[in-house]
Design brief:
The complex is a heterodimer of chains A (about 450) and B (about 375). Chain A is built from 16 helices and no strands. Chain A is an all-alpha fold and about 450 residues long. Chain A has a domain of about 325 residues. Chain B is an alpha+beta fold. Chain B is built from twelve helices and four strands, in the order βαβααααβαβαααααα. Chain B has a four-stranded antiparallel sheet. In chain B, α3 runs antiparallel to α4, α8 crosses α12 and α11 crosses α12. The longest helix of chain B is centred in the middle third of the chain and has 31 residues. The chains are: A mainly alpha (about 450), B alpha+beta (about 375). Chains A and B meet through α2, α6, α7, α8 and α16 of A and α1, β2, α2, α3 and α4 of B.
């Protein structure tokens, strides 16, 4: 009861997860009102810009498909270039959403409620961006269905001992499960939207999407069980997906790839990069949509702590990789690791270390964890740094492997950069559209954790 | 009131008030009690006496089914139907199947949890539920908690339910009729869905028709066929005569194709069969005879052919005394140069094939004209 809170020393009282008076009704009026209002001009400007970027990427993909992937910089022995770098990068971005929605849910970290919906949406959009790259990487994307094991007139089956096959299953499962998890959480919120929207076309759409959700006690009983089960399943899944992505590398024999630390190292990196992207988007959303009272500085502070923690784990992974290389007594591995920091692409290795390990150390200062300029700087640095980490792993390892006569310096072409730009355009276009038509905050989850929302908890803030 | 009553709904402002109302109304037995809340409220299922959700058991079973399915599928493909040795591992090594078994387990379990909850347990979508048309609904999905006394089929004491809810502290009480009033959303939704489906069906049909008419013989997947190579009888801009097919360079001799120096059959008598009469040679001869000679000379070599009636020619009977007396070299010459209406087989058959055929013809002759000592 109220006395428990007041009897605590002030420094132990948790900071509230929302500022100002927030009630269930005011929450709906604030969060669910966006679809009712015409978007501001700046939204249209932003959408035009992101769609323009997407159009560039889409045209270049058409150009690539019509001409062949020779328009990219990939050439032997660097057969994996921007295509796979971007794939791993975007899949990683997605992992933050699942971590926030599933793992933090299992840990009962209530602060996730206000940001989970946005993070889950970003997961889905990021996986959509990621999915483009293996598709165009196969060169003849209209035959990409050959990846799936189906009985065919050629009488052949895919090789289930190949990590690339595991990847097909992992990524497709990840997308399906993320979509299911996201939609499940959306149903009660869509019901709220349905009931507050005036009759018309939009109401019809919300009514269909919400499936006639009534919020009966029976509904909630099964819903909560399903959500809990999905959170548990998604937790295992998110750890498996990037592990499988790392198997694409670790199961091979390329020096610098063939390492047992890769699965946990990739999962950590994915969460790290994803949190940085969520921070960037949340800062923009918080300011442009006036959600400062629901997405507080405490949320951003906690997010930044996760970034700091995962950054330290990344530092450990880098050191452990270097140690493994040194301890292996393997001259090929020694050579590859020297290439990481002192070879043709020495700058990429140092961008990695600077952006991923050094920049987030700013977050040791509590004040900087709550400062927009610092957190935007760090989050952008991490995004760039994590992209370069995949560049280091893929390009540096491949460009100089066992056979010196086939060494080759890889340089991307403008087409490579254009398609990367296009994937960012697609991602942010989808984020912008999502922000206007769907509930961007999981209102039912926030309502359930408001003051006095539960019997016997009156007066206790979460 | 003409419509039968579906439920009497009372609205409450706090979860505690709702729980207290449930406790007061539950022993009264006025009808089926159901609570409606904007978010899950702790303890409401115990208060209403709801049974535990069977979802975890369903998910467990389907998770196991998914795991077993993925294992069986991969094992059958990789070890039985299409054994592929990778990295020196036996075809039955199951360890590599684990990642996909896990993913499929998650996939099956997730869709069981999600769709099982929505479709099976909560019986959604249900766009025409009476309560969806009530004015209480928008309060419920916003911030009010509701307790409904629902009809169990045999009528409902509406007045008693209204009184009981008011006494329990409801701030508003609504009587919800069945069938619902003009709940336009579900009708409009059905209309829109039908329209979309109709347009999709018509568009798909038209698209298929156009595709079939416009590209009737579009060859599927001809990537290996369409190559930058020369076709045997095709043209080529590379050579002076514009032809893709080339003649051999003058003066060269292809392997197994030594030139035959004789023009007259008698001259060829000097040639002897260079091949020994061994099993493989006779087998080759039999194959060559079967492919080239049999249609006209007959399977026994007696000139009773498969084609002769329609073909109009009179193939030689190889068992005449004259034919049997021919030296090997003359038979060879006939194969090379042809005779009467028999075409030359110099291009079709190599030297060894021709001589093997000669051996086989000799074997046929001897078999058809066997002497006592042959038995």
């Amino acid at each position: 009861m109220a006395t428990t809170t007041t009897s605590l020393p002030p420094e132990l009282v948790p900071e509230p997860l929302s500022t100002g008076p927030v009630t269930a009704g005011s929450l709906d009026d604030q969060v669910l009102a966006f679809p009712d209002r015409p978007p501001p001009l700046k939204w249209f400007v932003a959408l035009a810009f992101t769609l323009g970027c997407f159009a560039v990427g889409a045209l270049l993909i058409v150009y690539t498909i019509c001409t062949g992937i020779g328009v990219w910089g990939n050439n032997r022995p660097v057969f994996w270039g921007f295509d796979i770098i971007n794939f791993v990068f975007w899949i990683g971005i997605g992992h933050a959403g699942t971590l926030i929605s599933a793992i933090l849910f299992l840990f009962r970290a209530r602060w996730r409620n206000a940001i989970a919906r946005f993070a889950e949406a970003m997961t889905i959009f990021a996986v959509m961006c990621a999915g483009i790259f293996p598709l165009i990487h196969v060169g003849r994307p209209w035959l990409a269905f050959w990846l799936f094991p189906y009985p065919n007139q050629r009488g052949i089956w895919p090789n289930f001992r190949s990590p690339l096959m595991w990847d097909v299953f992992a990524v497709n499962t990840y997308f399906s499960v993320s979509l299911m998890f996201w939609y499940l959480g959306l149903v009660p919120d869509l019901a709220s939207l349905r009931d507050r929207t005036r009759p018309g076309f939009r109401k019809v759409i919300y009514a269909i999407l919400s499936l006639g959700w009534r919020g009966s006690a029976t509904h909630w009983l099964h819903f909560e069980k399903a959500y809990l089960l999905l959170a548990g399943l998604a937790t295992g899944l998110v750890l498996s997906v990037h592990s499988v992505v790392s198997f694409d590398f670790a199961v091979s024999l390329v020096p610098g790839w063939h390492m047992t630390i890769f699965p946990p190292y990739f999962v950590t990196g994915a969460i790290f990069a994803g949190f940085a992207m969520v921070v960037i988007v949340l800062v923009v959303v918080r300011e442009s949509m006036d959600l400062g009272n629901l997405i507080t500085l405490r949320h951003l502070d906690l997010m930044n702590k996760v970034i700091l923690g995962t950054s330290c784990l990344m530092g450990y992974s880098y050191l452990m990789e270097a140690f493994t290389a040194w301890y292996s007594m393997n001259p090929f591995l020694h050579h590859t690791f020297r290439q990481y920091v002192a070879g043709t692409y020495w700058w990429a290795g140092w961008i990695c270390i600077g952006c991923n390990i050094l920049a987030p150390q700013l977050f040791w200062v509590p004040k900087w964890r709550r400062s927009y300029p610092v957190m935007l700087f760090v989050a952008l640095a991490v995004t760039v740094g994590m992209w370069f980490e995949r560049f280091v792993i893929i390009v540096i390892s491949l460009s100089q492997d066992y056979l010196p006569s086939s060494w080759h310096v890889y340089w991307p072409t403008p087409v490579d950069f254009g398609i990367l730009l296009g994937s960012f355009g697609l991602f942010f276009s989808l984020v912008l559209l999502f922000a206007r038509v769907l509930p961007i905050i999981a209102t039912t989850e926030v309502k359930a954790a408001l003051q006095g929302a539960q019997p016997g908890h009156e007066g206790v803030a979460s | 009131m003409s419509d039968p009553v579906h439920a009497v709904v009372g609205l409450f402002e706090t979860p505690r008030a709702l729980l207290e109302a449930i406790a007061r109304l539950r022993p009264r037995g006025l009808g089926r009690l159901e609570a409606y809340t904007p978010y899950p409220v702790h303890g409401i299922d115990q208060a209403l006496g709801l049974r535990r959700s069977p979802l975890p058991g369903m998910v467990l079973v389907m998770g196991i089914v998914g795991t077993v399915t993925a294992f069986a599928f991969q094992y059958w493909i990789s070890a039985v139907d299409y054994p592929l040795i990778t990295g020196g591992k036996p075809a039955t090594s199951w360890q590599a199947f684990v990642p996909i078994m896990f993913e499929v387990m998650v996939l099956f379990a997730t869709f069981t949890a999600g769709l099982g909850m929505l479709l099976l347990l909560n019986r959604l979508p249900e766009l025409d539920h009476p309560l969806l048309g009530s004015s209480s609904m928008s309060a419920i999905t916003r911030d009010r908690l509701a307790l409904a006394v629902e009809s169990e089929g045999d009528g409902l004491d509406v007045a008693a339910a209204q009184r009981a809810l008011t006494e329990a502290g409801a701030v508003a009480v609504e009587v919800v009729a069945r069938p619902p009033g003009p709940y336009t959303v579900s009708i409009a939704a059905a209309a829109v869905a039908a329209l979309v489906a109709g347009v999709a069906v018509v568009a798909a049909g038209l698209g298929t028709w156009v595709a079939v008419k416009a590209f009737p013989a579009l060859p599927p997947m001809v990537h290996m066929l369409e190559q930058p190579r020369l076709s045997a009888q095709g043209g080529s801009g590379f050579f002076e005569d514009g032809r893709a097919a080339r003649l051999p360079v003058p003066g060269t001799v292809a392997r197994g194709r030594l030139p035959h120096p004789f023009t007259r059959q008698e001259e060829a008598s000097v040639l002897g069969n260079p091949l020994a009469r061994t099993g493989p040679v006779l087998a080759l001869g039999r194959r060559v005879y079967g492919e080239r000679c049999l249609v006209c000379h007959g399977s026994l070599g007696d000139g009773k052919a498969l084609l002769s009636a329609a073909y109009g020619a009179k193939p030689a009977n190889l068992h005449t005394a004259a034919a049997r007396a021919l030296p090997d070299g003359q038979i060879y010459h006939v194969i090379v140069a042809g005779k009467n209406s028999m075409p030359p087989y110099v291009r079709e058959l190599s030297q060894d094939e021709r001589w093997a055929a000669v051996h086989y013809v000799r074997a046929l002759q001897r078999a058809q004209n066997a002497e006592a000592r042959d038995f």
